[in-house]
């Protein structure tokens, strides 16, 4: 077996989908007998919707979810209306935050795997890992208590915050716990305008209602106030807290899930140690501010799966596996920083931060978000569309990088609209811009000889945002590996010989 995927949460399920699409031999195991039925992560970012589109599941996710476009910021005696994603995102087919419970997201991914003959082995726990020559000896314990020894070339820990793989691989998980306790409930609320996110801002903190849809209309999220006893969460307690924040007194009822939890901010010291890889919560955990957790995990998986599959099949060099940590660890670190700042601003009792939260932010937010620069920055960051790998060893700017349009390491924008759909098939995509006649067939035949089954060619003409007479190579995860100007393809040839060499067949 090439890959053992440990954990079938959203990260493991996405990884399995990509390993299958790229022809790896793998197994996916999870110690729990059933998938998660709680909502947990409640939103899917635009970039995740794009990244999952190649598996044909994005339409189903959108069909089951609830796109929210507006935020209502509730202040004493007034409500400020803010746009959420309906401005500033012109280069994606999904310019919205999709509210959908994690249970539904996992259900859609599980159904996709089932439809493609992938068996998620539930009730199967990884209990032992040991390096054995060029492979890993793994011990799996089944629900009936029997143990099975299996060998895998690579093991990926998608096994959450308490990762067994991380522990057995001896990878540290550094960070800290926040002192506060969060209260969470999925429930019905009378008196709230539907389809918007509601944030009640006071000196004491923030109370959120998110439009979840299923299994209940709303997700309530707030901090346990210091004077509220640490008893089990119940509806009366939540109503009492809501009444402190909300002048308009929304009435809470029919909870389907109520819980409290402590938050941490921790990151794995390494994302890889030899044959062991970490992805998702096994690699980073943080506050839910900005709905980044599950999204980052799914995108970790979709950065890694095709690399593991192509290397295992002998179609790409081992060096690709080093690029996983080089590309994803900086993303993980930046999510830890960003969510920590947002958490501090939302919860601090420091008088300066309280003043900024309750007085400055509501006053400034509408005009800041109307200005195109800050607006774009905020939306690009939260939507995860701004993630790029310009400093990766596996992205190369050609000898004459174009003056405008995307650069090597950037995500392929959906411009002209529909470009992402045209390049959705598995493998690499060579984009040739400028008059089609400029690109000679014999030149392309020589470039792609021995790898043409992995590279599709697209002649784009002069379509924006590309400078005329540009060529670019899109990787299987939708990021540009190489971009250059002109019709000379020697630079691209060198790139392909290094990263997709013919002799690796
Ligand atoms: C109460 C709560 C509220 C949350 N709210 C939000 C939110 O509002 N927004 C947000 O973005 N995120 C939220 N999260 C976080 C979000 O749920 C995670 O980021 C997401 O589930 C991570 O997915 P994952 O697949 O990496 O890990 P997980 O979903 O944790 O999946 C790990 C899987 O590995 C399995 N496993 C573990 N050890 C083994 C082993 N040894 N052998 C076999 N299987 C194993 C587990 O059974 C589990 O199914 C919340 C989490 C919790 C608990």
UniProtKB/TrEMBL annotation:
Residues 390-414 are annotated as: Disordered. Its cofactor is FAD. The keyword Magnesium does not apply. Keywords: FAD, Flavoprotein. Residues 2-339 form the FAD-binding domain. InterPro entries: FAD-bd, FAD/NAD-bd_sf, RIFMO-like. PANTHER family: BINDING MONOOXYGENASE, PUTATIVE (JCVI)-RELATED (PTHR43004:SF19), TRK SYSTEM POTASSIUM UPTAKE PROTEIN (PTHR43004). It holds the Pfam family FAD_binding_3. The keyword Transcription regulation does not apply. It comes from Streptomyces coacervatus. This is FAD-binding domain-containing protein.
